[in-house]
Amino acid sequence: MLKVGVIGCGGIGRTHAGVYKSDPLADLRCVCDIQRDRADSAAAQFGVKAYYSVEDMLKHEELDAVSVCTAGVENGGDHYLPTMQCFEAGLHVLCEKPISNNIVHAREMVAKAKEKGVYFGINLNHRFVPPAAKAKQWVQEGKLGDLLLINMTMWIGNPNETSPWFHIRALHPHSLDIMRYFCGDVKKVHAFFNRAPRPDGPGGKRVCWSNVQVNLLFENEVVGHLTGSYDANPAHNLERCEVMGTEGRFVLDNLYEELTFYPRRSQELTVIRNSIMGGVAGFQATFNNRLHRWLEQVTNKVPREEIEASGEDGLAVQEIIEAAIQSWEGNCVVDVMR
Ligand SMILES: NC(=O)c1ccc[n+]([C@@H]2O[C@H](COP(=O)([O-])OP(=O)(O)OC[C@H]3O[C@@H](n4cnc5c(N)ncnc54)[C@H](O)[C@@H]3O)[C@@H](O)[C@H]2O)c1
């Protein structure tokens, strides 16, 4: 059993703590938040010790791993410091997405984990569902033939106006991770953004670039497209991914609701619908599955490069995001940093 702690006790930190509490591979020892009331109430809820600083937690606890569930600017500004502190102390870290909103920090975090030889995972939880694994298996087995195209849509409603880049930096680590999961690394990016009208009054546009269309060229010559929005209703459909190859295409609809294979040379479809008997029960399951896989891989001491949804993966999607921003600002196609 891994001795774990959770840093950051907002809604998502509590979600991690709850998953650890119920996972047989984890022994939740403590929670930590610089807001004392948050740390205290989470500690009471989960029956563990509260800390109010990472330094103090590291001084008094012998942990194997932590979840970093802080937020900050663009939901990622506060991840750097506690993650680096935990790496310095030799702990494995599962960090919430985005790895960081600051690309220099993100690069340093990945480099530090490597230097210390510790595991680094990012909570890119959307890919941790059985239909995504099945679709990946189809890709690997060659059921689609040679990959040609990928289309991804992810749209929610989020009125956050704290930064122009909140939407792409905070949400699209998820969509781009799904795209990379199926099609690999991206080498070139071109993006257009727009801003919806302000929802709260007459005239003016949102501060946040709340809609985006991104064109992507992958290393394997696949061409891809991402549609993203903060002006939609996710109750209808949160995300959709379509991958096409020379022998057919699949559509993975709404994370796990339905997976369909459309063969190129036959009329017969393969449809896998989420079962009401033992299927994915809801979005919460993506956390359960992701955290369990992390615990499993750390417990089994897999080679560092085998960690699924790793720090490197979290950095790779952030590099694509920075390239998309540069593309819009510079009116050009941008090579993605690798
Ligand atoms: N994977 C997903 O599906 C998913 C969904 C939503 C949010 N998130 C991510 O989860 C993260 C947390 O979201 P939230 O809504 O719970 O945020 P939140 O702001 O409610 O909570 C973050 C907490 O971290 C604490 N904190 C900040 N710096 C700290 C430090 N150095 N040491 C200890 N505590 C510190 C804050 O005091 C705060 O209580 C964000 O990065 C967000 O992007 C992920």
Would you give an account of this structure?
Helix 4 (80-88) packs parallel to helix 5 (103-116). A hairpin with a 4-residue loop joins strand 12 (248-253) and strand 13 (258-263). The longest helix has 20 residues, at 311-330. The chain starts with a strand and ends with a strand. By secondary structure, the chain is α/β, with parallel strands linked by helices. The chain is built from nine helices and 15 strands. The strands form two sheets. It has a nine-stranded mixed β-sheet. It is globular and about 60 Å long. The protein has two domains: 2-118, NAD(P)-binding Rossmann-like Domain (Rossmann fold, 3-Layer(aba) Sandwich); 127-281 and 311-335, Dihydrodipicolinate Reductase, domain 2 (2-Layer Sandwich). The model has no long low-confidence stretch (mean pLDDT 97). The protein binds nicotinamide-adenine-dinucleotide.
Task: Describe the secondary-structure layout.
Elements: E1 2-7, H1 11-22, E2 26-32, H2 36-46, E3 49-51, H3 54-60, E4 65-68, H4 80-88, E5 92-95, H5 103-116, E6 120-122, H6 130-141, E7 147-155, H7 166-183, E8 186-194, E9 211-218, E10 223-229, E11 239-245, E12 248-253, E13 258-263, E14 270-273, H8 284-299, H9 311-330, E15 334-335
Parallel strand pairs: 1-2, 1-4, 2-3, 4-5, 5-6, 7-10
Antiparallel strand pairs: 7-11, 8-9, 8-15, 9-10, 11-12, 12-13, 13-14
Helix pairs in contact: 1-8, 4-5, 5-9, 7-9
Bound molecules: nicotinamide-adenine-dinucleotide.
